[in-house]
Amino acid sequence: MKAVVYHQHGSPDELRVEDVQEPELREGDALIEVSATSMNGFDPMMLAGSTGLKTPMPMIPCGDYAGRIAGFGPNTDAGSWEIGDRVCPHPFVFGEGMTGETRTGAACERVRIPVQNLIKIPDAVSDVHAATLPIAYGTAYRMMLTRGEIKTGETVLILGATGGVGTGCVQLAKSAGATVIATGSGEEKLDRLRKLGADHIVDSRAEDWVAQVHAIAGKPRMGVGGGVDVAINYIGGETWAQTLRCLRADGRMLTCGATIGFNPPTDIRYIWTYEQRIIGSNGWMPNEQVELLDLVAKGGFEPVVDRVLPLEALREGMQALIDREVFGKVVIEVQRDS
Ligand SMILES: NC(=O)c1ccc[n+]([C@@H]2O[C@H](COP(=O)([O-])OP(=O)(O)OC[C@H]3O[C@@H](n4cnc5c(N)ncnc54)[C@H](OP(=O)(O)O)[C@@H]3O)[C@@H](O)[C@H]2O)c1
Question: Which CATH class is domain 149-280?
C-alpha cells in the first residue's frame, strides 16, 4: 500500500511516498481504509527526533484519521461493527502507545487498530472534519472543560491560540460562554483568531505582551482584583512565569505540553501569594471524543482546517507547521470522501 514514510530523523526532506507492507492484523483488530488524516504539532517533533520517544522505523507520521472499516483480524469479535462503517478511532492503544508516536501513523492507505478503539462518525460530520478532532480537539476539550471546568463569564487567556490545540481551545471557551484573550503571531493568523471569535488579540512576539494582558484584564492585586480567571499555557519556557503574572487570585493555570521548554524558570511567589492552581491535562478519553463528534454534528462548532493536501504533499504540511504558517489543522486526504 501507499504511505508517507521516513527512515531516519531529520527535516521534511526525509519524507517519501513509498509502497509499504499491508498492516498485519492481530486478533481483536479492525482494518481501516483511511480517507483523511491530520497533522499535529508533534509530527515535526517526531520527525526531528526531539521528543525522547522511541520511534519505530520506518515511521509513518500522523495520529488522527477517519475512514471505513475494511476487515477484521483473525478470531475477532467485531460486536456490532460492520465492514463499511465510518469510523474515527481513538488513536491511543494500550501497550503500544499513540498512533504516529510510538506506533506507526495514518498517512497511508490502511491502518490496523483494536476494535475497542473504534468510534462511529455521525452522518452529519465529514471525514475531513472528523480527522481533525481526536488529538488537538480531544486534548483541548479535556483541558478546557473536563479538567479546567471553564464557565460562562470567565476570562480565559490562551497562549499559542493559532495552532491545532489553540484554535480548539478558543472555540470551546467561546461555546462555554467565556471571554477569550488569545495570543499568537503573524498578522494573517491574528486576524483569523479575531474572526474565530476571540474577544481580544495579543501578539505574542511583542515584548510587552504581559502588559497588554494587564491592560485588558487588569493587573492582579491582592484584595483588589484584576487578572484572568484561567490561563492556558502549553508553550512553557520563558512564557511560564510571565503567564503567572496574568492570573488572578485563585486563578487556574492549565497545561498539556511544553512547546519551547519543559523545565522553565517559575516564580513561586505568585503561586502562593495569589493561591494559584496549576492543573495538568493529558490526552482525552473516548467519551470525550464522542462528545466532540456530536458537538460538530449538531453545529456546535466547525473544526478549523488550514488546508487539505493530498498524501503526496504531506511534506508541504510538515514544512508549514515548522515555519509556523498553519492556523488550525492540516488535513491530508488519502482517499476521496464520498
Ligand atoms: N498532552 C497531550 O495529550 C497533548 C496533545 C496534543 C498536543 N499537546 C501539546 O500541545 C502543544 C500544542 O500542540 P499543537 O498540535 O496545537 O501544535 P501547533 O499546531 O504546532 O501549535 C503551536 C502553537 O504554539 C505557538 N508557538 C510555537 N512556537 C512558539 C514559540 N516559540 N513561542 C510562542 N508560541 C509558540 C504557535 O503560535 P504562533 O506561531 O502563532 O506564534 C501556535 O499557536 C504542544 O506542546 C503539544 O506537544 C499535548
Answer: alpha beta
Domain ranges of the chain: 2-133+284-333, 149-280
Residue nearest to atom 43 of ligand 1 (CA): 160
> For 5-54, how does the pLDDT look when each residue is reduced to its tens digit (9 = 90+)?
999 999 999 999 999 999 999 999 999 999 999 999 999 999 999 998 99
Two domains, one topology: 2-133+284-333 and 149-280? yes
Query: Tens of pLDDT along 260-286?
Result: 999 999 999 999 999 999 999 999 999
Q: Which ligand 1 atom minimizes the distance to the CA of 186?
A: 40
Q: Does 270 sit in the ligand 1 pocket, CB within 6 Å?
A: no
Number of other CB atoms surrounding residue 241 within 10 Å: 16
pLDDT digits (tens, 9 = 90+) for 296-320: 999 999 999 999 999 999 999 999 9
How far does residue 164's CA lie from ligand 1's centre (Å)?
7
Dist. CA 41 → ligand 1 center (Å): 6
Decide whether any atom of ligand 1 lies within 6 Å of the 293 Cβ.
Answer: no
Q: Which atom of ligand 1 is nearest to the CA of 184?
A: 40
**Grid cell digits, residue 44:** 515535526
What separation in Å is there between the alpha carbon of 81 and the centre of ligand 1?
35
**Mutation probe of ligand 1 site: the residue of 39, 157, 165 with most atoms within 8 A of C-beta:** 165
Per-residue confidence (pLDDT) for residue 96, from 0 to 100: 96
Total-model pTM: 0.97
Q: Which atom of ligand 1 is nearest to the CA of 162?
A: 43
CATH number for the domain formed by residue range(s) 2-133+284-333: 3.90.180.10
Q: Using 50, 70 and 90 to split pLDDT, how confident is the model at 336?
A: low
